[in-house]
Amino acid sequence: MRVLVTCARSPHALTAIREFGRRGWEVTAADCTRLSAGAYSRYVSRRLLWPNLTEHPAEWLAACIAELKAHKVDLLFPTFEDTFLVSRFRDVLSRYTTVLVESYDKMMRVHHKMSLNALASEVGVDVPETWQPADEAGLDAIKADLPYPVVLKLPDTNNSLGLTFCDDAPALTTAWRRLVATFGLSGDRLPMIQQKIDGDLVFSLFLGDHGRTVGSLLYEPLLMFPDGGGTAFYRRSIRHPAIERLSMGLLEALGWHGFLGFDYILERGTGRPVLIDANPRTTPAFLTAHVAGVDFTGLAIELFQGAHPAAQLEPRADVRTKLWFVHWLWFSFMLLPGRRWLHRLRAAFRSLFLRDFVPDIHRADDRGPSFVTALFVPYFMFVINTLKGAKGGYMYGCNYDRRRSELLPADPTE
After folding, report:
1. What DSSP character marks residue 312?
2. b/e for 222-233, b at 16 or more Cβ within 10 A?
3. What is the average pLDDT across 164-188?
């Protein structure tokens, strides 16, 4: 069997590559950078360098279709925001291979935070109070009466891109204008404002079989980069029956087929789970799940084969996993002088003595990805982020630009 894994630099992709490879699948890894960790796994048979998804979605799609035509591929396995483009052209891609993703309408329904809020309210899941002004005049009309502090968010992005905490109306106005100008926002992509909920974050990943949940993993982020929102690079698996029940209710209401992750805040004082985001794709929970006893790759293979797998809904709690390269990024930023510097220094050096975790990338029997990651980190820090600014990041080129992609024809092969 052959699988094409895209956005191969993603740690989630590397986990999938290793798991497919260990089962004897022939793995092709594709990305828009030569420094793609997953592409250098010992389990990869072929590596492909192809266009930047963010800037050139039409070319990315054309390259994918060309590969599927030229080589028999049994399963296309997107691992990051490539999932959105694959979903939008699912019917086209399905002519050449099996595609285990949901419809684009459902993807956008949960990915766009305003429509997610509406869905959550319908099924009885709590969400923060939210506002989305239609323009700056609309912002001016409400900003004096908002319950500060508030959180300013972009409604359809990932990794906390654009996330800004605002303590008062002047700060909110400044941040709103900056985001609109930086990202060229309009319509339903304009920034949204949410009530700030004080509490602890819980992240998750579920796998649905037409609405029936067949796999689940919840984790708490022990360390994040940047602090307060972003990539949870050190995480611990947990069980939380209320969140599991609420999330499975959402999957059932949607009739969801494929991967879907939810982000919650447990409100301090009440313990009430409040839904703040959804990711209709694989997430870092994919990595932790395999260590905690939930075989997401095996479950996905069964779904690909048309089976209805037995559910794996009881992962081991207190399993810890860590992304070393993001840890070193966080450590470097914690050393920079600034607010609460001594506190940050102590936290940074304490983190060097963490024990009892499983590394996400480093494996004694598969060392190639570790070496490539060591080269990629300075490249994206000093090249990508310098050139792209706020739009940069280690997954740049794998982010979905909805505005560009939705301009493409429904069938690019015609």
Report:
1. B
2. ebbbeeebbbbb
3. 92
Per-residue pLDDT band at 384 (split at 50, 70, 90): low
Q: What is the C-alpha separation between 276 and 373, in angstroms, rounded?
A: 31
Give the CB-side neighbour count of residue 209, counting CA atoms within 13 A. 20
- Tokens 């992509």 appear where? 189
Backbone angles phi, psi at 173, to 5 degrees: -60, -45
**Residue 206 β-bridge partners:** 216, 260
Task: Kindly report the pTM of this predicted structure.
Answer: 0.92
Give the DSSP per-residue string, 361-377: S-BTTB-HHHHHHHHHH
CA neighbours within 13 Å on the CB side: how many for 42? 9
Q: Give pLDDT tens digits for 121-172.
A: 999 999 999 999 999 999 999 999 999 999 999 888 766 677 899 999 999 9
Instruction: Tell me whether strands 358-359 and 212-225 are parallel, antiparallel or unpaired.
Output: unpaired
Strand partners, 78: 6
DSSP annotation string for 88-132: HTHHHHTTTSEE----HHHHHHHHSHHHHHHHHHHHT-----EE-
Q: Do 100 and 87 meet the contact criterion of CB atoms below 8 Å apart? A: no
Tell me, yes or no, if the two domains 2-101+400-405 and 129-195 fold the same way: no
| DSSP strands (E only) in 311-357 | 320-322
3 state SS of 37? helix
**Domain coordinates of the chain in residue numbers?**
2-101+400-405, 129-195, 324-387
Q: In CATH, what is the architecture of 129-195?
A: 2-Layer Sandwich (3.30)
Q: What would the CATH number be for the domain defined by 2-101+400-405?
A: 3.40.50.20
A 10 A CB-CB count for 133 gives: 17
Classified as helix, coil or strand, 49 is strand
Assign residue 163 a region (left: φ > 0; alpha: ψ between -120 and 50; beta: otherwise): beta
334 vs 327: CA distance, rounded Å: 10
- Going through 161-211 in order, the beta strands assigned E by DSSP cover 164-166, 192-195, 199-209
The rounded distance, in Å, linking the Cα atoms of 391 and 253 is 34
HSE (side-chain half, CA atoms, 13 Å) at 178:
14
Q: How many CA atoms lie within 13 A of 17 on its CB side?
A: 33
